[in-house]
Amino acid sequence: MCMALGGRVAESLIFNKVTTGAQDDLKKVTKMAYAQIKQYGMNEDIGLLAFPTEEETKNFIGGKPFSRKLANVMDEQARLLVAKAYKKTEMVLCENKDKLKLMAEALLQRETLNYLDIEALIGPPPHGKKKLIEELDLGPITPEKAKPDSPKSPRPTESEAQTSK
């Protein structure tokens, strides 16, 4: 969540305003917060429960499978979760304001920065360089072998192969 809020918080700290791009980040973070609470059971007040998504509840008779009171608790917990992530993001960026200003100035000159640009500006990441995982070629994927006399066999039987020649 903090990573998604980084742009919004940075704009607020450096430029004292927030653009529409940061608005999209807030939508994503809000969706993450509700998913943690409603789908993944990651909230102490709600407990280990998983509720269907908005799309899944469209076909429910009688509406949502939880009360209005519980919906209000979910809303409050989502607000608290996003606020906590916002404050944490603000704290991290304030602690690194010198690096943030360098990046903000560079972004004003060149609209985007890649990994190498950022590393040149503020140095390597504190937990070591970025490691890329090489793609592993596992060869062609083949269907599971079936018995030759099975009707679902991917291979023709010997007699079928000879008659098709």
Automatic annotation (TrEMBL):
Domain of life, per lineage: Eukaryota
Segments carrying the region annotation (Disordered) are: 125-165
**Biased composition range(s): Basic and acidic residues:** 144-158
- Peptidase M41 domain: from which residue to which, for each copy? 1-120
Cofactors demanded by this protein? Zn(2+)
What keywords are assigned to this protein? ATP-binding, Hydrolase, Metal-binding, Metalloprotease, Nucleotide-binding, Protease, Zinc
Q: Which Pfam families match?
A: Peptidase_M41
PANTHER family in the record: ATP-DEPENDENT PROTEASE (PTHR43655), PARAPLEGIN (PTHR43655:SF8)
This one is known as Paraplegin-like
Species of the source: Limulus polyphemus
Q: What is the lineage of its organism?
A: Eukaryota, Metazoa, Ecdysozoa, Arthropoda, Chelicerata
